[in-house]
């Protein structure tokens, strides 16, 4: 209702009369200006006291929901701290230190409510505006198929900008935490897997949350990573170097395995600046590239004209140094045959040597069946009469396990009683493409029962002497091996139970394998 228009020629009598009638009507209809007195709040037989204001998450909240008490409190605290800033200025401290003191001691007081409340306020505003925050998990490059040994990057991103997000990564439902597996690196919302192997297959998810503890969290849809052993398109290069000097030229060729008639290909690269970029050499089997600077470092591959088939992506690195250390794709896997070689930009009579953890080695290093002990920092050094001329960039070489898992399985039918047969099988999964012969050992209470190429060990007639802790060991050579978990077998009145060292029962499975038989 508008009554201000009743004032005519400075005469307020009509206006005041109307206001008095309005006040009388409000009183008669329980619309008083003062709010009614609320009944006391009783919790656990105790009456809660009524206060004019209280502190919550760094803010002063008043009974009338006005900002004055909160502002007064913040200003008072800031003014107290300004005294110390003035004293520091009198001592002629550098401006950088004064700014640092202001940010830590004064600005932190002024901005605390923003830090505490901003994320929640932002989410409310987004919801009111019709924008629902969503988390997306993508793979770069966006391949349908990933080949063994390639490098992939998983990126976790929100569709809107929310400051202060923290990220967590999951594989097959389990949270991934540091220290991460060899070849895996995590930088906030970016997860990179270098030289991917079989154990990297699985379902990946990412989660983003705000605050500690988490105030609001978002989870992406799963991304399934499947690995194929060999690509349908072969990728050839000349020269065979993967570390190139600026200005060097490389010739790439592709061919479809089993179909030499296909001669048209498209060429692509993925670098730090470009997720996927077409190269100029289109629809020809070969492509010549001059690597001019470090910005051309990245992944290179080819695809058939239809895009249905592609080659394995190869990583090239461009360096400005005088000398470079040539390595295979990293990380390595136990059992790989590895050659590390020094190469100089120009032919030289100077001596070049490989250094491992600052220990001098040879101009080139060849490892047959590389092992964990070969891990470490490698570099190339150029000498002229004992004087250091140049050094390559240091390369940190890591070696992942040959065996991704070794599991002892007990095969014994539905139940095993005294006198019945028990079969143990050593199941292995490995990370390598190499088909190396595996040696199996079965142990009981630390003593070797059998060593050989058979993956199974059989107890023909179970008795009390066979009860104990069993495990198996898979190995290649004498230095590369992996043990299974220990399982405890004993005779039960009804059926034979297989338990791990924690006493947990495990289901019995059937396998048909060539086995080594042990009598009673």
Pick out its properties.
520 residues; mainly beta; six-stranded antiparallel sheet; Immunoglobulin-like; 5 domains; five-stranded antiparallel sheet
Description:
With 520 residues, the protein is mostly beta strands. The chain folds into 5 domains: 71 residues; 94 residues, Immunoglobulins (Immunoglobulin-like, Sandwich); 90 residues, Immunoglobulin-like (Sandwich); 80 residues, Immunoglobulin-like (Sandwich), CATH 2.60.40.10; 116 residues, Immunoglobulin-like (Sandwich), CATH 2.60.40. Helices cover 14% and strands 41% of the residues. The protein is built from 3 helices and 43 strands. The strands form 12 sheets. Strands 36, 37, 39, 40, 41 and 42 form a 6-stranded antiparallel beta sheet that branches. Strand 10 and strand 11 form a beta hairpin. The radius of gyration is 36 Å and the shape is extended. The relative contact order is 0.07. The C terminus is likely disordered.
